[in-house]
Give the backbone structure.
Amino acid sequence: MKNTLNIESKSQATDLPHSIDENVLARIKQGIWLYFILLVFEGALRKWVLPSMSNPLLIVRDPVAIWILFLAWKHSLIKEYSYIMLMSLVTFIAIVTSLLFGHQNIAVVLYGARITLIHFPLLFVIGQVFNHNDVIKIGKTTLWIALPMVVLLGIQFYSPQYAWVNRGIGGNMEGAGFSGAMGYFRPPGTFSFTSGNSLFWGFVSTFVVFFWIQETSVKRWLLLLASAALFGAMSFSISRTLFFQICVTAVFALVATSQNPKIFGRLFIAIVGVCLVLIIMSQISIFSTGIEAFTERFTNANESEGGVKGVFLDRFLGGMLGALSGQVNLPFWGYGLGMGTNAGAKILTGSTDFLISEGEWGRLVGESGALLGISMIIIRLTLCFDLLRKSFQNIKIKNSLPFMLLSFGLLNILQGQWAQPTSLGFSVLTGGLILASLNKETT
């Protein structure tokens, strides 16, 4: 059959039907690639290319996700995952309760519901359609994007906030950077906010470390340049979040090598290479200034927030349980879907201030009430545990890619701020890639 792709002949360990029209599969994969490209560059569209359409472009990936889901459903590529069914059921109940007992604004409700009805199922479609080789292609492309991205960060770092390159959403001349240290601002790169920049480079770090410890077709010179770009971005971004994400990825790499001693030598080479890169970069004034700014902010923030415990535990792990117990006089059904998002707050009050909670778990419980909110948390927690178990098992069959991706995806899927579109996008994309990387071809 000329127009039919036999999955078994490709040795792809997925749950796809035995045969599927290769044109359909290609279109869905193209849609996933478009989702990825828009995730990285939607901020650029909102700031520089189409600033007058910055508000509609906030959900520019939603039509792409709907199109992918439609094709997947039409061709029976959406398996009846219990995760999708349970999350959809909880969301539909939350829609009804939001309209009956919550804020009752249907636009805000639909904006909040799209998170779990559109993007969450997409995570599983990516894992269903992509395979291990597709994930490697995403990784290689990410390394190439990292090279001009770090140049952009350097320009933004040394440019005043009123410069064109630092314009904010909608062409705002006040600038998109956040205060950093030594008079320098934290640059956002191509993203709408600095948080997106930190997420992107955290995503980059997983592939940089993986390509160092796993034998792949990535050119060594590209890997060296991407490694230098990663540490250059860490200094320019003045981001402690990125620093700790790199540390978490390094810990995951150590765990992976302990389970597969054959790649320990590659890890040692990677450590030596990284040290050399850092020594060279510290002698270059362009980077040394950023390193000084990062060091000053790190030191000052540690002193004001109680050292490593205050920075790491409170920032990444702390506050989740506090968010659950911190809801005062919370209605049983919550305040309504979408109310905890910036866009929902803007529609309801005209201001983007958080109406419920800045933390993700607090937002879920505040919007949907304790029963439904905790149900959503349990679904995400169970998914994370499932991904961790399967990823760890794959290390023993010499496939460390899902485990390395989990170093970035674990906390983002569990308690990433899905109310923010960029954070949601990276969580969905990374979760899908973790599932896809489990589909390793046995060529």
